[in-house]
Amino acid sequence: MNTPWRAGVLGSQLAELLRRPGRLVTTGMSVLVAAFVVFATVMAQQITTNTTLDRFRGTPEAVSLVATAGDSNIGSAALERIRALPGVAEAVGRVNSGAPIAGPSEHWLELHSDPGTGPLSQVRLVEGGYPDRAGQIAVNRRAAEELALSPGTRTTLRVPDPGNPDDGDKTVKVTVTVTGVVKSTATAEQQSGAYTTDALIAPLADLPGYEHIDIRAKDGVPQGELSEQVHTALGKTSAGVSVESGSAVRAQEEREAVGGDLKEIFQLISVFLAVAVGAAALVATSAFRIVFAQRIRQLALLRAVGAPQGRLVTALAAEGALVGTVAGSLGVLLALGAGHLAPVVAASAAEELSAPGFPVTYGVLVVVGTMLVTVGAVLAPALSAARVSPLHALRTADTVTGERGVRAARLVTGLLLAAAAAGLAALLLNQNKGDDRDLGMMVVVASAGLAFLALIALGPLLVGPVLTVAGWPLRRLGATGRLAVSGVGGAPRRAAAVSVVVALGAALVSGALVCLACLTGYMERSDALDAPADFRIAATGKGFDSAVVRQFAASPQLTHVTAYRTREVKLADREFEVSDLAPDALPTGKDIDTATGSLADLVPGHAVIGSDLAAALGLATGDTLTLPPPLSASLERGDPHRGGRVELTVAATLPGPGPLLADVLVAPADLDRLGATANASGILADAAVDGLAARGKAQRALESTIRAHVPDPDDVTLTVLAESRDSSRDTVRTTGITALGLVALTVLVAVVGVTATTSLTAIERTREFGLLRALGLGGNALRRIISLEAALYGVLGGILGLALGIPYAWLLIRTAVTAAPLRLPTAQLLLVFAGLAALTALAGLLPARRATRITPMTALGDSE
Fold it and tell me: Which three-class secondary structure string do you get for 774-820?
């Protein structure tokens, strides 16, 4: 008896699904997108890994053996013996060294040996020619742009003195000519680099010999035989030299390339993928709940003729498995095609990406995982639908899905979850600065997770109040707006189910934007102290007189040229630095934060002090800081200021040190009272125009001015502060873009969910729409109603998501980076809110178009 029932119920449900394939597509759309996103990430990881290996692998594919030096480098004589071996087709000595370009800035130039052509070359010539004689180099594109090194130009390197090889401090100047510009296929071009052959690099390298030798075997020569020949050729120098196969070295490089930062990035991506899959499961659950509600009369009839609940659950779960399998397979195939299309598209944009493979195992796992997720999503609606009473055969789908209210158990669960989330948040707000940050961040995530679960449980109760406020502008539009608001508010459970998924995307996006704004503010404040300008020119001798400062200021390549003076004082048995650098003299001054007081109060007779000095002397804003004058001033002038001391009022305190690590900031007149000379200790300056090339011109202008107008250029040090500033900002920017791209996956799933839900509800409300058409509502008006309803899902989700994402983002930043300021990117948050409303409105266009095909006669028919 059980077997016929099982076959009959299962067959009837699958037949119903196949009879209306549009519902299969609609219910499976969200999990299809999730499967596409997951497998697309697998393809992206393969593309990234292969591209990383192709670009950054230090050992070409043609290398058969690699001889790596031990304590000392391999000499040129050993390299020649290896080249003379009968089994060797080619051997290249590798040196990775570096030398500064002679000048005040000592700009560092990486030096590499490479043959320039052939299977063992790691560079590709893009302009000019490759070095073929001593004193020639080819540079990479960064060096060409930043240092204005083009074919034919000459520059001077400061290299080790060959007459004193054991004294690394002894250097000589060597003038080299740039012959060409190359693109490296083995190393990232994030640093200025130069290349020449292994025979020509010796006069430029800091160590004699070669760090390792790449060896290419002749065709048919066994690796073991070649290894023995190499050991014989090395002779006495073989002690400490390791000879490994090229494949083993490449495998080690592969492990290093795909590890570290790259591995951590994909681990981070996996977290966001889990969130996106969870969002897809929520959408699928909502979609199946609506579909089963539409078939409530059919399920009730099956119950009336004796179908067991268990058989109904099994049949509905099998339906979910079929949907998940089909959607997962389509998602994997689409991602596979997109992955192999990516290198072709990149090539059209002059970018190089390596092709991925065909990860069949991962594809099968994604399909199976999608099927399991869909089955899990369908269980709750299936259990609810299977409990249907036979009397529901007399009711319509509208009366079922339009039921309101929240069961007591759900209400209590939601309140408990909200209370737990609030408790954890309160615990974090009361923690001390010295508490474990990693633990605190885990607590933030746990609290946010509990808050979101509470939102899922209490969502139907929140729809009404939020809709009352959010729907007020739409009601002002007339009947169309009022019908749209009532359509969403009439089914709070459905509205909550869709809006919660949108809220998840809105919370993640808004949270990422707030975190990025706070971290950007933190980096700007740090840079205002550590790197307040593009360049710093410091003098160790007599300093810069006013005439030299004017020469710097007159350069058209420079702007914001600011001179400052410093003085060392001894307080509480410690040395502290006093500076008269005015915080408002540079554009970055606005980013300097104070712990107490205001920088605007830095006037003669007042001082701004750093946290170390404030802690050492126990000073606060308004207290008196007493600074001792130099010893010579006390002896010569007597005691003009209470025994020679200079008393200043603390105008403000800083959370750390001041600009350029100064402990005390004072007015120039007060630094005069401390006995400082008139000459400037240093100069800060910015490039007149943004960009790497403009900065290179500004740097060369500084060097020219130093050589022409500073009496002793060797006492001057030019530091490019912008490099460290750019590095930190690029890190924050890259992290932010990556995070936003990942959380956008959830928004994509949410928009698909709105499309699916709106499509299903349009089918569910066929008779309602037919009745509206019969009462005279036009097709355009009906289209506007459905589009406005879809937009309301975005508005509801946006409000709930912002209310959840912004506080938790601030809590996360407060826990992870206590010194970061709270910044709200208002314009970006408003754009996110408006974008969600627009995207969800667009998601309702297709269902709205279908709904306009409903005729007034449909009102007399059946909703099924």
Answer: HCCCCHHHHHHHHHHHHHHHHHHHHHHHHHHHHHHHHHHHHHHCCCC
